[in-house]
Structure formats: structure tokens, C-alpha cells
Predict the 3D structure of the following.
Amino acid sequence: MEGARIFFTLPFFDGIPITETVVVTWGIMAVLTILAIITGRNLEKIPRGIQNVMELYVETINNFTRDNMGESKKGFSAYMGTIMLYLLFANLAGLVGLRPPTADINATFALAIMTFFIIQGGGLIKKGPKTYLKGYLEPMPFLLPLNIISEISLPISLAFRLFGNVVAGTIILTLLYGALGSLSGMLGITFAPVFQVGIPIFFHAYFDLFSGALQSFIFVMLSMVFISMAWD
Amino acid sequence: MGKKNHPLANVALITYLGISMVTPILVGLFLGRWLDRRFNTEPLWLLVFIVLGIGGAFGNLFRVATKNIPKKRK
């Protein structure tokens, strides 16, 4: 399996390649925007239909953020809810035959970098530059390089765990489809790869639904934990 | 703070432990190798940064493990 396909190249600078990752992300953005417009119109005091679902989601995220980050940081629920929705849609994109954007290290790394800057910037602003820089010298001044390495490793581990989980699922499913196709070829069924029907369902259920949802949840959860650790 | 620790937060932190021990060592490895190539000092920086990475890994572990202790004192 190769990396994300390049669809076309924008003629700026040395040429900016637009890969499948970016195009699928645009698709997810469109879906989420349309969903927001449709469900945001005609809001009623007593929710009906889809408004119920959306209110449930928003309330769950609000409560969750408040429980894990504390009352003072519940404003983060917007960021966390957005990332959660995006990651959920991105990881489930494999179900409809698209390449999940999170199977591209650039996408996951961008998200992890955002969390990293919230952690560092928030620590800098909340604690003040002096206390913030002093935090690197704790518990002992000679541990400075250790602290720097563990700070740098945070976005890397966040990005790679999500990327690794999703890309492994994508690769295994690609191999499975290939194997099932050649299996039906070997049995002499040439008109259609019969085995590709039905059998991959279980693998899709595990790798896309279960693993995808779990990994998006863990990403959001870890972002919450580390941001609240750095801001306190 | 009025912050109760969600059980799922702890689950997420436990799944983070493994990768949080590997990444600092890898960061140290690649940083050291890059510096060695640059200054032709093999294997000085490689060893130094791997040791620092191992230390950083334990630092990560320590931070995750002691996360809740100061809050309980309040």
C-alpha cells in the first residue's frame, strides 16, 4: 500500500500537492457544515427529531469536559467536541471506501501540534513566563534536557498512536480484500469476487467502528488530561 | 476545583503509558544520530541522547503516575 494519492498540484511555491487526505477532509468539512446548518435551523424549545441527537451530543461533551478539566476550563468543550466529531468522521471514512484522513501522519500531526501549542501557550500565559520556564528546571535543574525531551515527545506520541492504529487497520483491510479476491479467483469464480461480500464486515466493525471510535475518544481524552495538567 | 476524575480518563492514561515510554527514546535516538552525522562524532551524541531519552521516558511515567497526588491534598 502506498501513501495518499495526489489528485492535483496547486501551482504555488514549488507546487502544493492536494492528496486524497485533503480531499476527504474537505468532504468531511462539507458534511459537518451541512449537518450543522440543517440541525441548527428551526430550533425549538422542546427538541424533536434530530435536534434531540445534537443536544445529547453537545450536552455529553459539555459534561465530559467539565468533569475532566474542571469548571474553569469548560470553554474547551467547543474545541474538544469539534476534534471528536472530525476524528469520528475521519476514522469512519474507511467504511464508505475512502481513505481515512487520519491514515496520513500529516493530518494527525497537525491535530497533535494544535494540542501541543494549547498546552505550552496556555502554560505560558496562565503561569506567567517565569513560573513556566522554571517548570522545566523542576525537580532539579540538571533535568532540563529530560523535561524538554518529554515535552517534545508528547505531540509525537499523540500523533503516532492515532496514525498507527488507523493506518494498520487500513493496511490489514486492503490485504484482506486482496486475499479474498484471489481466493475466489483460485476457486474458479471469475465473474465476481464472491468472498469479498460479507466476510470483511467483521473486520470493518473492529478496525473502523470499534478501533476508530476508541482512538478518537482516547485522542480527545488525552488532550483534555494534558491541557488541564499544564493549565493548573 | 470540583473536578472528579472520570474512570475513562484513567483508562486513556493507561493506554498512553506504553507509547509514552517509547517516544522519548526514539526522539533521543534520531536527534543523537542526526547530531552525529552533522559533527562526525559517532557515537557520542547517540549515546548521550539515548540516555536522556530513557530518562525522559521515566519522567513521563512519573508525571502520569503522580498526576493526582497534589489535587488530593487540597
